[in-house]
Amino acid sequence: MTDVTPLYGIEELAAATSGEVRGAASPVTGVSIDTRTLNPGDAFFAISGDNSDGHLYVARALENGAALAVVAREKADTFAPGTPLMVVDDVLGALVATGLAARARSQAYIAAVTGSVGKTTTKEALRLALSADGATHASAASYNNHWGVPLSLARLPRAARYGVFEIGMNHPGEITPLVKMVRPHVAVITTVEPVHIAQFSGIEEIADAKAEIFDGLEPGGSAVLNLDNPQFARLAAAAHAKGAQVVTFGADPSADCHLVEVCLKADCSTLVADVMGTRVTLKLGMPGRHIVQNALAVLAAAQLLGADLALAGLALARLKPPPGRGVPLQLALPGGSATLLDESYNANPASIRAALDVLSRTPVGPRGRRIAVLGDMLELGEAAAEHHRALAGPLSEGGIDLVFCCGPLMHELWHALPADRRGGYAPTSSALTPMLASAIRAGDTLMVKGSNGSRMGPLVKALADRFRTAEEAVLEG
Predict the structure, then answer these.
(1) pTM of whole model > 0.70?
(2) What CATH superfamily is the domain 106-318?
(3) Of 64, 114, 225, 295, which residue is the least packed, with the fewest Cβ within 10 Å?
């Protein structure tokens, strides 16, 4: 068996968490809060949330090979003598302390990514770019909140050369404590858009909340900002106030990292960029102008962190969409197949426009149609109805043939569409599913998108299950 270098010694973890060791623990090679994804050797932190108590899963974690369980002192005596435990006053607090200890011992160059749109894809792109130059650790999935950030930090290997952390928020004041844990050398803000605006007084307050990412910058750190965004000046002023170097990206030729040439294709993009005076030619493995824009931020961050820019550019050809953010699925239909672009992870006005732009460039088969399937965009405040009606313009400009809508807010869009573009409307995604399934035909390309609360993910799964993929149909045939 191959030896695995421990992530933490038992004494080291006890010191970090101010914990009391009980039982005989194995070396800790990872950190987990979920038995479904736990690996042998992980320390299982039994976090209690609104809907579950991690202490109920300690036995399962240990059965699955956990090195030990980190448990609250008040519940420690409910476990059998000899059970390998780290007993602490507060489990989430212990996870935070572990993350802080990992950051304190690390010599890695650290980047933090936030923004209204594109955080996870940009984080993944930066992970790819930096990995080409050295060992890189990055947040898993969208682990960007009060437990996701310390969990990601706690998993930071001591030998990592680079670290990339995603930081999210939906209220003012959420980013500051998280970024003070991460202490990045480079902070990236992809863009500022009216997302979660129901929790804010306006777009300016959203920009101020994103600018909290500068609160944790290391001395001499850099802020990578979108020069094309209307909130740029406000963000730049906030960055300068924290002593940060501001590096800009965008299509504007005056940006420090700007586009020189670009070719947008259905499944990828090619571009030439000027990165702080260095010309770079590269291919992106994902389509979309918004992906190109954020790739500029990635290149700027890689340059600032000292990575090899040529290797970083080459690595971006391997960029693939995270789940629910544009993953293409092939549906087997009578007479051929249809393509489904799964954008079901979440939605806001900016991300729907970006997804529609990709759909407009995606080819269809003979007699095929471009179909947008849209669920409600949530947390848009008093202007929600207006934001939904306004999508009629991009749908027309993109040459989208049919639109299927679900949810009370998308009913506003439904009324704003011309009759020949109306595919179908239902109050819920489950009610829309059979209507959509009966309308799809071979050659179609459809894009499904909506906020998580609109439950467009189950709609995608229902279509995939009903039609299977074209490849599965061939294998079973």
Answers:
(1) yes
(2) Mur-like, catalytic domain (3.40.1190.10)
(3) 64
